[in-house]
């Protein structure tokens, strides 16, 4: 535990160092002077847009989950908790997805494989919509003659690769039971290592649970209608376009005019950078450098690019960190209250039984 804490502290220090160097090179006081001219009303509107984007993300997942026992409010809170997990434990969204699956299984009557299938399909749909929206933004940049041939080739290549990988992922998920033999071989080879750390481990039981889990995931995935998948995809596409309006509004609030399609393209690529498991909580420093560099690459002045980046991060990181931490705290408090109520209920039943026996 001490080692884990020390590594986390080191990575935080690395992030702070990168961010400090970033502020030095972009000109800290110049950025401060530019941000002073910010239109606060537009900036506050950007916060509202961020909440809409989170809601769309939660709704697009809920459509795939299709559980009457979970409301949109609950899915919104679960997504916030997963965002907090991703920020605190940067593992390419794995930590956040694990939290999402865990909380959902607690709140619904769905089993683990059903919830895991919905999260997996949602993640794949997010990847495919990434490629689709990137294709749209590239086309518009080409139409408006904002993109040179070299950059165009790179963007097209990345977009095609992402779409192909997403499609392969969906095909693999739909036919996941075909990978059962491979999974069995891998688990069998790792059995000795697992048993060393967990003496109670039994290979036969693990293989049985794995088989049931794979069958449950495939059954759930096959049960998701095309209409629900299409609706989820459309919601995620809308989210990409709306999300890009946050940095775009920051440019507007600073009085700088730029192409929305440039901002959309940068937003897409920055989200891809965020998926890289660097290990720095919140990707502090890395995200600022990446976003600013992308904007500069499109000809935006360094101080303006840095100012818009910092303002965008205030909304899409620090504001989200605040509300996601609150949601995580609320979730913990809710669990304690639920446990307390269950305990009180058991005590009341026990008292009632004792009174009945006493009267007898």
Number of strands: 0
Beta-strand residue fraction: under 5%
Q: What low-confidence regions span 5 or more consecutive residues with pLDDT below 50?
A: 339-360
Number of helices: 14
Please tell me the overall pLDDT. 74
Tell me about the largest β-sheet. none
Rg result = 24 Å
Overview of this structure, please?
This protein is 83% helix and 0% strand. The chain is mainly α and 360 residues long. It has one domain (2-174, 224-359). Helix 4 (72-88) runs antiparallel to helix 5 (94-107) and helix 6 crosses helix 10 (226-243). 34% of the residues are buried.
Notable characteristics:
single chain; 360 residues; mainly alpha; 14 helices; globular
Short description:
By secondary structure, the protein is an all-alpha fold. It is 83% helix and 0% strand.
Write the layout of secondary structure elements.
Layout: H1 2-26, H2 28-36, H3 40-65, H4 72-88, H5 94-107, H6 112-143, H7 149-174, H8 180-197, H9 203-223, H10 226-243, H11 245-253, H12 260-274, H13 286-297, H14 302-359
């Amino acid at each position: 535990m001490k080692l884990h804490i020390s590594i986390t502290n080191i990575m935080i220090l690395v992030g702070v160092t990168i961010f400090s160097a970033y502020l030095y090179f972009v000109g800290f006081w110049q950025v401060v002077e530019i941000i002073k001219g910010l239109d606060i009303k537009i900036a506050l509107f950007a916060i509202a847009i961020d909440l809409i984007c989170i809601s769309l993300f939660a709704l697009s997942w809920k459509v795939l989950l299709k559980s009457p026992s979970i409301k949109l409010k609950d899915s919104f809170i679960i997504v916030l908790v997963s965002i907090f997990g991703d920020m605190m434990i940067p593992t390419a969204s794995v930590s956040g997805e694990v939290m999402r699956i865990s909380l959902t299984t607690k709140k619904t009557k769905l089993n683990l494989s059903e919830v895991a299938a919905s999260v997996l399909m949602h993640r794949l749909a997010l990847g495919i919509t990434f490629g689709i929206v990137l294709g749209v933004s590239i086309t518009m940049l080409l139409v408006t003659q904002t993109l040179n041939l070299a950059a165009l080739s790179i963007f097209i290549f990345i977009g095609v690769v992402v779409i192909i990988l997403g499609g392969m992922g969906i095909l693999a998920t739909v036919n996941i039971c075909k990978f059962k033999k491979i999974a069995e071989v891998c688990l069998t080879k790792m059995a000795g290592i697992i048993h060393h750390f967990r003496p109670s481990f039994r290979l036969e039981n693990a293989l049985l649970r794995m088989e049931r889990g794979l069958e449950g995931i495939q059954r759930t995935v096959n049960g998701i209608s095309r209409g629900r998948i299409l609706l989820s995809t459309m919601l995620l596409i809308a989210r990409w376009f709306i999300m890009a309006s946050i940095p775009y509004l920051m440019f507007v609030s600073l009085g700088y005019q730029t192409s929305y399609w440039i901002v959309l393209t940068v937003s897409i690529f920055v989200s891809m950078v965020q998926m890289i498991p660097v290990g720095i909580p919140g990707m502090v420093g890395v995200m600022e450098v990446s976003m600013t560099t992308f904007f500069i690459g499109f000809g935006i002045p360094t101080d303006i690019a840095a100012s818009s980046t910092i303002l965008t991060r205030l909304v899409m990181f620090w504001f989200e960190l605040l509300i996601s931490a609150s949601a995580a705290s609320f979730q913990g408090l809710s669990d304690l209250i639920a446990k307390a109520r269950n305990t009180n209920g058991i005590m009341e039943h026990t008292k009632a039984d004792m009174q009945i026996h006493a009267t007898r």
